Amino acid sequence: MKTNFALEEKFQKVGGKRHYVQHLFGRIAGVYDLMNKLMSLGLDGLWRKRAARYLALATGETGLDLGAGTGDLAIAVIKGAGPDTRMIGMDITPEMLAEGRRKLVRMGLQDRVDLRVGDAEHIDLPDNSVDGCCSAFTVRNLTNIGQGFREMLRVVRPGGRVVCLEISHPPGKIFGSLFYLYFYKLAPLFGTIIGKAFEEYNYLPNSLTTFPKAPALKEIMEEAGWSDVRYYYQNGGIVAIHVGTKKA
Ligand SMILES: C[S@@+](CC[C@H](N)C(=O)[O-])C[C@H]1O[C@@H](n2cnc3c(N)ncnc32)[C@H](O)[C@@H]1O
């Protein structure tokens, strides 16, 4: 895996990547949803809906959303599932969860989504305790991606699924160059001007530089023990949805 030495230095200064990421999301929690919509040109909701469909929780099942943030993926899962389906959402940033809890109350979904502080690399749940696990735009922020997928495997019951929605590297050369131009130059500019957060929205493209391409992420998931791993590019590969199953 590539190393971004400038970013590594920033992580070390504040006591590691986990602390850096936690403080960063703590600072932008209030503008996070709006900036997501603007930067993805409104596509983020559609991607989460598709990820929720791949998770395919049945009525009465319980799913886990890691790096749940303001709760949008957990909400998408609940909206697409039967009436007794429940979600646990975990995140290391309390400010993001606080935004999420307010949203759940506004939507009347507070009894179906339980947002808690928790770390995706050390999940505070027993083995085989959830029916499926998902994440959206979280895995890129982990210190050790393999450790995250091993933990997800541990807590999901045999036969359950993992779904990972993440920004990816578009495979087409021309489209890829246009995407990188947007992602590395324009998106941070939006973040700086509209979100008033220069450091935070410059971390966004930098976090992709070292993130594995879709086939390599599939290998990491397989090495962690997930079976039948497939990935589905969305919108030319701007994002990819990886899906795996825990052997029954
Ligand atoms: C880009 S946001 C995504 C939020 C949400 N999933 C969404 O779809 O909008 C990434 C989230 O992952 C959280 N995060 C980063 N590292 C984490 C970890 N080790 N465990 C749990 N959450 C983590 C951050 O606090 C942040 O809220």
TrEMBL record:
Which keywords label this protein? Answer: Menaquinone biosynthesis, Methyltransferase, S-adenosyl-L-methionine, Transferase
The first-level EC class reads: transferase
Signal peptide positions on this chain? none
Pathway participation: Quinol/quinone metabolism; menaquinone biosynthesis; menaquinol from 1,4-dihydroxy-2-naphthoate: step 2/2
Q: Which residues cross the membrane?
A: none
Top-rank lineage group of the source organism: Bacteria
Q: Which GO terms describe its biological process?
A: menaquinone biosynthetic process; methylation
Q: For this protein, what is the EC number? A: 2.1.1.163
What is an example of a Pfam family matching this protein? Ubie_methyltran
A GO MF term: demethylmenaquinone methyltransferase activity
Q: Which Gene3D superfamilies match?
A: Vaccinia Virus protein VP39
Q: Which reaction does it catalyse?
A: a 2-demethylmenaquinol + S-adenosyl-L-methionine = a menaquinol + S-adenosyl-L-homocysteine + H(+)
Residues the record lists as binding S-adenosyl-L-methionine:
T70, D91, D119, A120
Q: Which PANTHER family match?
A: 2-METHOXY-6-POLYPRENYL-1,4-BENZOQUINOL METHYLASE, MITOCHONDRIAL, METHYLTRANSFERASE
Job description of the protein: Methyltransferase required for the conversion of demethylmenaquinol (DMKH2) to menaquinol (MKH2).
Could you say which protein family the record assigns here?
A: Belongs to the class I-like SAM-binding methyltransferase superfamily. MenG/UbiE family.
Tell me the protein's name. Answer: Demethylmenaquinone methyltransferase
Organism source for this protein?
Dictyobacter arantiisoli
